[in-house]
Amino acid sequence: MTIIAASTYSFNQLISKGEVSQLETISLAKEMGFDAIEIVDLIHDDSISDRDYAKELKKEMDRLNFPITNFTFGADFLNGSDGDFNAEVARVKNMIDIAEILGAKSVRHDATSGKIGLSFDQALPYIVEGCLEVTEYAAKKGIMTMVENHGFFSQDSTRVEQLYSMVNHSNFKLLVDMGNFLCVDEDPLEAVSRVAPYAGYAHAKDFHIKPGSDAFPGEGFFGTRGGNYLRGAITGHGNVPVEQCLVILRNAGYKGPLAIEFEGIEDNHYGLKISLANLRRYCQKVFGD
Q1: Which of 57, 74, 169, 287 is the most buried (most CB within 10 A)?
Q2: Rounded to two decimals, what is the model's pTM?
Q3: What range does the record give for the signal peptide (predicted)?
Q4: For 115, phi and psi rounded to 5 degrees?
Q5: How far apart, in whole angstroms, are the C-alpha atoms of residue 153 and residue 288?
Q6: Whole-angstrom Cα distance, residue 166 to residue 132?
Q7: Do the Cβ atoms of 96 and 73 come closer than 8 Å?
């Protein structure tokens, strides 16, 4: 059976309102019927260290017999740690140590958000060096590393494919987010088809799309790189062909977990309940679960 995880990011609406803590989203996700959890960042106050907080998260997952599928966190090998490349690499390695505490066998870190006036090809040597050094460190701990098509710079399928090819390490894969390609106005089917063979993990994310030629649709929407408008959607309610993207992943040999990363304006409980039901149905049809 395909494992479907809830990303803790999907609960950001509740977390930001103070209605639940990140720690509490673990039991909430299990109650909703998810199979596992994806931990995104570490959200806690200053009364506890990252490492001690990670131990608390691990203790809760063990108590619930609810596994972690992935640990996701930010990184930027051009701008992070005040532009100090070596310091940023060291910081990301420390996050790999946190992943080990959590029991995660894979992590997703970012590559870079880019710099004005710097092309992707110009940035590539720096981010390749960072990704390679981190994945070599993580491999010794049995943790696979990935970058995601995320943001507006390290996002296009051709760019993440190029990054994957240049890192060229067996421990380095791609997190394929089928919805995020729309942030750079790329057709999800074409993009997922390109990068599916390199997938180490996948996000089932959906978006509503409005053309940039229309008036701004209002609160909840944001602009793409090309000037169109996107709003997070319940999985199956938006314009991303989620089921067809799953077929592409299946045909490329992907058999790993899927995570729902819900960022719609609907109530988190309601949005995740429908998203999970829809994704379960798609998986039954596509993977025969």
Answers
A1: 57
A2: 0.97
A3: none
A4: -130, 145
A5: 36
A6: 9
A7: no
